[in-house]
Structures are given as structure tokens and as C-alpha cells.
Amino acid sequence: xxxxxxNRDEIQEFVDGIDSSNEFLPLQFMIGLSGHDPExxxxxxxxxxxxxxxxxxxxxxxxxxxxxxxxxxDLQDLELxxxxxxxxxxxxxxxxxxxxxxxxxxxxxxxxFANLEExxxxxxxxxxxxxxxxxxxxxxxxxxxxxxxxxxxLAHQMKLTGICKSGKPGIICIEGETxxxxxxxxxxxxxxxxxxxxxxxxxxxxxQWLCFSDFKEIQLxxxxxxxxxxxxxxxxxLFEILYQL
Length: 245
Description:
The chain is of the alpha+beta class.
């Protein structure tokens, strides 16, 4: 690029001037090396400081990158490998070794970015694991028509299924994806209750594990509620857990 050409010319002028002057000013420049992903611009900055001891001693190099996807540890490792690459070239008295080093560094960074893009593509191919929950809540009572309407409407809004047994005691079972279930429970906690307790939680990775097709309010006596749990093939101990018998 034009910037790389100017940097090369400045370095060469600096090196040529070392033999003709006893006054040396350090030459400092920075270049940005980027990957080739058109959807995400990743840039690694390479700061180079050349002093009067060049080319006998290698320049000071600092490699950094912000939001480039490469960890600081990997960048520090790249700095060490870059110095290791330059040292034998400096020992051989090759004045232009910095140019060779920067070309090597460019290829290393390009490879790092290519690996990042490959790993990113693999991660996108892997579907996120979704977990499902069933939460049973026990209430001293559920009588308020306003609360009962809210309980049903919120479940429909959050695409959750289950039942609300109104009356005394009140029992709510909510099921669906885990995160919305927990948000639903927290929403109910924000209301004023004489007593609200989460009595039982279950989880699964299988959607077919869910046992309700919608969310609705029911009114059942304890004996009928026990029969409902049996019809749903739920745990035989669930009734005792909910009523703490």
C-alpha cells in the first residue's frame, strides 16, 4: 500500500543517514494489519521504533489490538515470535531485514484472522442448546380477578403453558423455555401475596417433555387435582410436595 511504501522509504532514509551523521533521532511509525472479512473489520496495530543501533539490534516493537478478537496473551506471544524471527536476520547483517519481518508478520496476522473467522463460522453452525423448565408455585390463595387475568395473559404473552388453580390454596404450574419461565416467576413475585412459594422445579432438554398444550385457569378440589396430576403422568409424589403432606 501507499502507507507501507512511505514507511519503507522513511526506514531506508533513516538507515542511510546513520553512516553520515552523528545525530540520531529515533524513527517511530505505526501500521495497521487487517483481515479479509468484509463483514467485520479486525485491525492489529504494529508500533515500531528504530534507533541508531539499527540494524545491529532489532527495533522495539509493540503489537496491540482493540476489539480484534485476538487475546492480549496471543498478541504478546506474536511479539515474542516476531523478535525471534528478526534476531537471526540482524545477526547476519542484513540491513533490510525489518521489511522481511513485516511481511512475515503480515502473513502471521492474516493466518490468525483466518482461524478466527473459521472458528466463528463453526460456532454459527452449532445450534444453541435450549433447556425447558416446569415450575410449581404454591399460594395461600388466588382470588383476585385482576391477578387471575394477569396470570393467564402473561403466560400467553410469554408463550408459556401450564395451569392456574385458583381458590385456596392457589397453585400455578408454568412450563416452557427456562429463561421465560424464570422471568414469569419473577413477575409474579413482584405482586403482593399473602404467601407465594416455589415448591418444585423440573428441567429437560427435550421439548416433547412438556405436558401442557396451553395455559388456562382451573378450579378443582384437592382430590380432583390429584387425579389431574395422575392423568398428566406427573410424579406420584408431586401432590405431597405441593401440599406438603
